[in-house]
């Protein structure tokens, strides 16, 4: 996809490159295997591609630092749950509300 701002739709044809770089990198992290290339007006090219998404991003971001544990946490699932009692927005005082989420 190529994009050049049209002055008739935008206040200014200038792009906020710092913000744009941040957003494009985030898209590459969140879409494993997506290759994103930014060609700036001066011809500078920046590419982002994270084959394994967030895992690859974290490995790159922590390069040169001591990381504990040495290998990234690897889990196939995690279950979280919580329960609380008390009065809140229309629930009786003794009501008990629970939620549980399983991430796989």
UniProtKB/TrEMBL annotation:
InterPro entries in the record: HATPase_C_sf, TopoIV_B_Gneg
UniProt-recorded name of the protein: Uncharacterized protein
Source taxonomy: Bacteria, Pseudomonadati, Pseudomonadota, Gammaproteobacteria, Oceanospirillales
Keywords tagged on the record: ATP-binding, DNA-binding, Magnesium, Metal-binding, Nucleotide-binding
